[in-house]
Design brief:
single chain; alpha/beta; 7-stranded mixed β-sheet; 7 strands
Length: about 325
C-alpha cells in the first residue's frame, strides 16, 4: 500500500492509502465468499477521521452506501476489482510461503496493510516487520492501538524513507534475519518511486534474503507511465483512459506515479536484479478474472468484460538457491 511520506499532511495518512482501505472494505461486503475481498479488517481502519481525509470525494461516503449501489460508481467499481485481485493474490502467496516454512514477513511501505493482524492467529509464531515512512507509520500505530487496545507483539515497526535510507540498515535495526526464509510484501509502492530505488530494493532482497524467500508485489506497466500528462488518445481502450484519469488525480494530490515495468519483459527485468518469477498475473487478464473475479454463478466482480487491456501486473518472485561451484 502506497505511503512514502509524500503529500501527507502532519498527523494524517496518505489519501491514496485510505482509498485502498475503502476499496478493500467494500470488496469484503460481497455476498459471495468466492470473490469476497479477504481483508475483513479493512473497514475497522476507516473511521470518521480517515473518511474526513477524503472529504469532498466519492470515497468519503462510499462505506455509507449499500454495497450494490457503491460498486455501480465507476471509480469505486474499478478499485474494488483491482484490490480484490491484488489482495487475494498476495494473501495466497503469503499463506503458501508460511505453510512452506517461512518464519518472517516484511511489509514494505506497509501503510494500512492488515496482514500482521489478520494472520496472527493462523501463524502465531511468525514475525511481521512493517516498514514505512514515519508520518504514516505513527498514524497506523495509533489506529492499531485504538482498534486492538494495544500494539500486538508479533509486529515490529520500523521507519524508512525509500528515497534516502538503505533497506539493509533499516531491516538490521528491526532484527530481520537474513539466514531465515521469509516473505516480502511490496504492494502499491514501486510505481511511486524512481526506478533506481525500485531496482535497489529488489537487489537487496535478491542478495540478502535467504534462498527460497519470496516476494509478492505489483507494478504498473511503463507504457502507461509514459502516457501520463499527455493529451488523451481516443484510440486507448476505456480501462487505459480510466487509469490515466486516476493517475492524474493522484498526481494532483501530490502522489504521482513515476516508474513502471516493461510489459512482456517482466521476467527479464526481475532476472536482472537476481529474482526468479514464480507467478505472473497481468491485472486485466482473463486468468485474473478466472482466479479471483468469477462468482459461483458465473457473474463477474466489476463491470468490464473478462479480458481487457492490462495496465499492470502482480508478481510472485523468489530468491533462487545459490549454487557454489
Amino acid at each position: 500500500m502506497q505511503s512514502l511520506g509524500i503529500a501527507i499532511e502532519p498527523g494524517l495518512p496518505s489519501k491514496s492509502a485510505i482509498q485502498v482501505m475503502v476499496a478493500r472494505a467494500l470488496g469484503s461486503h460481497d455476498p459471495d465468499p468466492v470473490v469476497r475481498n479477504p481483508d475483513w479488517l479493512a473497514e475497522r481502519f476507516v473511521g470518521p477521521a480517515e473518511r474526513a481525509v477524503l472529504a469532498g470525494t466519492v470515497w468519503e461516503t462510499a462505506l455509507e452506501l449499500d454495497w450494490r449501489d457503491a460498486v455501480k460508481i465507476p471509480d469505486l467499481d474499478r478499485q474494488v476489482r483491482v484490490h480484490l485481485v491484488r489482495t487475494s493474490f498476495t494473501d495466497e502467496k503469503l499463506v503458501k510461503a508460511l505453510d512452506a516454512g517461512a518464519t518472517q514477513v516484511v511489509i514494505l511501505g506497509a501503510g494500512f496493510d492488515t496482514r500482521a493482524y489478520r494472520f496472527r492467529s493462523m501463524f502465531p509464531h511468525v514475525r511481521f516487520i512493517e516498514v514505512d515512512c514515519e508520518p504514516t507509520q505513527k498514524y497506523k500505530k495509533k489506529r492499531v492501538a485504538e482498534i486492538f487496545g494495544t500494539l500486538p507483539g508479533n509486529v515490529t515497526y520500523v521507519t524508512i524513507d525509500f528515497n534516502k535510507d538503505k533497506l539493509d540498515d533499516v531491516l538490521a535495526e528491526a532484527g530481520y534475519r537474513t539466514s531465515d526464509i521469509g516473505f516480502f510484501v511490496w504492494e502499491g509502492v514501486a510505481y511511486y518511486l524512481p526506478e533506481s530505488v525500485v531496482l535497489e530494493t529488489l537487489r537487496y532482497v535478491a542478495k540478502n534474503a535467504a534462498p527460497g524467500t519470496t516476494i509478492g508485489m505489483d507494478f504498473i506497466y511503463q507504457f502507461l507511465i509514459d502516457k501520463i500528462g499527455l493529451e488523451p488518445n481516443s484510440a486507448d481502450p476505456p480501462v487505459v483512459r480510466g487509469v490515466l484519469d486516476m493517475a492524474e488525480r493522484l498526481a494532483d494530490m501530490g502522489e504521482p506515479w513515476v516508474s513502471g515495468i516493461p510489459e512482456n519483459r517482466e521476467s527479464e527485468y526481475l532476472a536482472n536484479v537476481g529474482l526468479e518469477v514464480v507467478d505472473l498475473l497481468p491485472q486485466g487478464s482473463a486468468e485474473a478474472t478466472r482466479r479471483y473475479r468469477t462468482r459461483r454463478d458465473g457473474s463477474l466482480v466489476g463491470s468490464e468484460a473478462a479480458a481487457f487491456r492490462s495496465v499492470g501486473c502482480f508478481v510472485e518472485a523468489a530468491v533462487p538457491v545459490r549454487v557454489n561451484l
